[in-house]
TrEMBL record:
ABC transporter domain boundaries: 1-232
Lineage: Bacteria, Pseudomonadati, Pseudomonadota, Alphaproteobacteria, Rhodobacterales
Organism: Paracoccus contaminans
InterPro entries named in the record: AAA+_ATPase (IPR003593), ABC_transporter-like_ATP-bd (IPR003439), ABC_transporter-like_CS (IPR017871), Mo/tungstate-bd_C_term_dom (IPR008995), ModC_ABC_ATP-bd (IPR011868), Molybdenum_import_ModC (IPR050334), Mop_domain (IPR004606), P-loop_NTPase (IPR027417)
Protein name stated in the entry: Molybdenum ABC transporter ATP-binding protein
GO MF term set: ABC-type transporter activity; ATP binding; ATP hydrolysis activity; molybdate ion transmembrane transporter activity
Record GO cellular component, one term: membrane
Amino acid sequence: MSLSVALRHDFGGFSVDLAFEAPPGVTVLSGPSGAGKTTVLNAVAGLMRPRHGRIVVGGTVLTDTARGVHLSPHRRRLGIVFQDGRLFPHLSVRQNLLYGRWFAPRGGSPPAADVIEMLGIGPLLDRMPARLSGGERQRVAIGRALLSNPRMILADEPLSALDDARKAEIMPYLERVRDRLSVPMLYVSHASAEVARLATTIALIEKGRLRRIGPAAEVLADPALAWQGRDAGALIEAQVVARHPDGLTELIAGGLPLFLPALAAAPGDRLRLRIAAADVMLARTVPEGISALNILPGTVEAVSDQPGGVLVRLATPAGPILSRITQRSAGRLAARPGEPLTAIVKSLSHAAQDVGTPRKAPSDADQET
Ligand SMILES: Nc1ncnc2c1ncn2[C@@H]1O[C@H](COP(=O)(O)OP(=O)(O)OP(=O)(O)O)[C@@H](O)[C@H]1O
């Protein structure tokens, strides 16, 4: 189930002119405030009618202005999750979930019991929305959207109203939805930890234009993308090898060992790790007698100037790694494309919410959609 969007619209002071295609999985629309992310989502939802546009979800044409096609929102079969959940306040959780089910076309939608289990909302069924926490409300909103048997889930910054602890709590549920149900998702976010954990594809939008689209790991490791600001970081995939008695989990990525503390994963599990650029030091030689456990040799691929320093992209056997260092360090290290350098990652710096499970291989997702 893929997504194809082409839009041209002028609001007067602001115009959107972009086109992209995204494969199955979670497509994250990212970019600065006011870039046009919500406008794209609203156009897909049918909540705004573009002057020119063609929007196709999984082979179904939802909008085609050249042919006068513009399906109304309720005929698009899209499950929408807003920032604030928007549950029906006078209905219990169970009734809210059933409401989604009620309007779903028969067949095809996941069994309600599976969705309830997957989102951990079984104990909440008889509660009223006013008695739910923000995170619980969002889980119910996602459940309601899934039970309407949607072609696609549209989520507009669904976690932005939650504090960091609640965000970290809800993430595993979203990952389960992504990995088990293979319902495609279009997800608006400008928070890079969210993007890193969930995205299959990232479409970066700036000033109403598409700046970049590609597989999440590639887009996140592109040092030219200053939008990530101080949150820049690379994504690598690793496999758990062992859990050691001292609490460290040993992983392997591209043949290199990596160690992470307090990781709830078993040997054989494949994980996505996000390594923040600010947590990576660079050295010209492989250091000895150093407390850091994660040391990755590599070659400089690119160096880009950023406010307050430079971002160095290193090709390593584990995948591309980003490092943010000062101009002075870059000069001292002679960090230039082609130079060998070693990345030193402090093992304790991997934030728990930055560790996510990998998405399914696209071929698996293809088979199920
Ligand atoms: N109906 C409208 N009429 C006029 N201008 C609009 C309308 N809808 C959106 N805009 C303008 O389009 C621009 C993009 O808005 P949009 O909400 O799509 O951005 P965004 O990337 O989602 O931003 P944020 O991250 O802050 O939510 C803004 O400048 C906004 O004022």
